[in-house]
Amino acid sequence: MTISQVSFGSHEPVLDVKDLTVKYIGDTRSTTAVDRVSFSIGTGEVFGLAGESGCGKSTIANSIMRLLKDPAKIAGGSISFGGKDVLAMSPEELRRFRWQDVAMVFQSAMNSLNPVLTIGEQIVDIFTTHAGYSRKESLRRAAELLELVRIDPARLKSYPHQLSGGMRQRAVIAMAVALKPSLLILDEPTTALDVVVQQEIMAQIKDLQRELGFSVLFITHDMSLMVELSHRMAVMYGGRIVETAKAQDVYANPLHPYTQALMGAFPPLTGPRVPLTGLPDGVKFRNIPDLGEAAPGHLVAPFGADASVIDSANLEGAAR
Amino acid sequence: MSHSLTLPAAGSTTSTPALEIRGLGKSFPIGGLFTRSSVRALHGVDLTIGRGEIVALVGESGSGKSTLARCVARLEKPNSGAILIDGVDILKRDRFQASRAFRSQLQMVFQDPFGSLNPAHRIEHFLRRSLAIHGKSGGTEEETRRRLEDLMTTVGLQADMLNSYPHELSGGQRQRVAIARALAVEPQVILADEPTSMLDVSVRIGVLNLMRKLRDEQGISMLYITHDLASARYLADRTAVMFAGEVVEEGESLDLLANPAHPYTQLLVSAVPDPARAGSYDPVRRAELRQAVMASTTCAYDGDTNQACSAEEPVRHQVGDPANRHWVRCHLYRPWAGAGGHALAGEPAQPNVPPSNVQEKASA
């Protein structure tokens, strides 16, 4: 299975994931959380990974960062980053790889700040540990970083609880881009935030991305948000990718019934009020086959009576 | 704290509304034993829900929408105001706590279906209990059984799920059970506080469709509390926007979201990601809106002779066609800075401030 290398940067893909399989191994049975997933992200490209809770999207992010812990095991496939094999890195290489090459903002990252250290101390820590700057130089850079995400540098002396949720999340994003990584992984970066704050943070990420030129792997279940931000996107279901294409193509012409259901789950803010259906309770797709090309750059897993078995009879309900 | 209770003529329906909230106020004391300070969570909230009408209450966290829900559900005691069901003030009728009669008129559906169903009981237990407590079980065991099965069918579940435990059901199915439990009582009003926010995205629409179906088929009125403007537009006939403990704008959902008049509503609408919207929002305009929300001191309607302006609260202006029942309250708008955690300008504005250019959409 190959994913066509349509990407926005003209260069080599920054990240290339091939046939990644991750299993959670239990005593009596094991679960395949990610099943033969392949995708690549070009330089300066924003790639979205959409899907519901439990579909394996966070597991993929953790695999790329090599953060998986037992009982999760990478059972197959390869992850290469800028030509280097991520799965073969030694602990020392990994330490440099994380944060310097790839940084990640977690789902409730704003709660991952250390409550007993000031924001400044935590940012300075990054520079002294990973970049080897002096304390004074680190402080100067920390102030610059906060300015980059439009937080008053005076806030360096604040403790996390003195900042609002949105400010904390912005501080975490600033910390993630501190060492100018070439890939930023955002795992549901705005889920816990109000819509106005969410919009501001997304705009800020867009600005930062334009300014610093990093690539982004953006994980969310909010299709509207994803289509607005991403260049290309993939939709995951049950550990498999069911559809991948340019974000606008997925939005304008979703082909897989599951993609259509996800799209239908977000009523529009404009236009007439039309009845939507979503995915009926109990509809499940099984044995999703490999992707096939439906249009140039638009790949979709074949579906139908034979290709993917559906538990409930009413597939019509899932399609729009 | 109580003030003029007159509602705009367009806001009331011909018959007695199913639920009417008048001048509801609630403040929470803060600090220690001897301090008198308090946070005002609600201030003079008026809201009317007609029979068979779905009204959405939108706003961000801290705007007071959940406090309003808790007051209406009698989980919290409001400081002032009245809550009328069928024209009877239930705060006066049931002085100290909710009576069973009240519970049979108004039922709640909560946000978290994982927490609102006791894991130790089968689904049948929840529904049977609702029926028994409110005397709807119909006398014979066969009749009860028939009602239980009817309830399950109504909410789109199979009758054999009555024997399941909550952990055997998906989030969407559990929320349907919670709705069935509310329906067992045959209420006039259902109060749904963020009923879909904990559910997987692909089943959310199904729950919204179910709520619409119940309204259409059984004429149940609903107060749908959410922070999701798009779902409010999808489900509700009317939408009320809450900001810092006050309802600042209200109107027919489609009209309200197409022509938001209050800067806060405009800010909310502009923040919702919508790929269908042509072009993204102008950041300069957003900054202006943000400024307008944080320090609203002037009114776009100043100088408009058709709109009677007065310095008395509440000042409501009709927006557009009266048929849309769309009003906004923004003249000299100064919400209480303590509520909602928003930093708002505390300077009292002068009555004769020249009109600003911040809100221009509204007067259309």
Could you walk me through the main structural features you see in this protein, from its secondary elements to its overall organization?
The complex is a heterodimer of chains A (about 325) and B (about 375). Chain A is of the alpha/beta class. Chain A has a domain at about 15-100 and about 220-310: Rossmann fold (3-Layer(aba) Sandwich), CATH 3.40.50. Chain A is built from nine helices and 14 strands. Chain A has helices at about 55-65, 90-100, 120-130, 135-150, 165-175, 195-210, 225-230, 245-250, 255-265, and strands at about 15-25, 30-40, 45-50, 70-80, 85, 100-105, 185, 215-220, 230-235, 240-245, 285, 290-295, 300, 310. In chain A, the strands form three sheets. Chain A has an eight-stranded mixed β-sheet with strand order 6-7-8-3-9-10-13-12, sandwiched between helices. A four-stranded antiparallel β-sheet of chain A has the order 2-1-4-5, with helices on one face. In chain A, helix 3 packs across helix 4 (about 135-150). Chain A starts with 12 loop residues before the first strand and ends in a 10-residue tail after the last strand. Mean pLDDT of chain A is about 85; it is low at about 1-10 and about 305-320. Chain B has about 375 residues and is of the alpha/beta class. Chain B has a domain at about 10-255: P-loop containing nucleotide triphosphate hydrolases (Rossmann fold), CATH 3.40.50. Chain B is built from eleven helices and twelve strands. In chain B, strands 6-7-8-3-9-10-12-11 form an eight-stranded mixed β-sheet, sandwiched between helices. Chain B has a four-stranded antiparallel β-sheet with strand order 2-1-4-5. In chain B, helix 4 (about 125-135) runs parallel beside helix 6 (about 170-185) and helix 10 (about 265-270) crosses helix 11. The longest helix of chain B has 18 residues, at about 200-220. Chain B is globular and about 65 Å long. The two termini of chain B are about 35 Å apart. In chain B, about 45% of the residues are buried. The model of chain B is unreliable at about 1-15, about 305-310 and about 330-364 (pLDDT under 50).
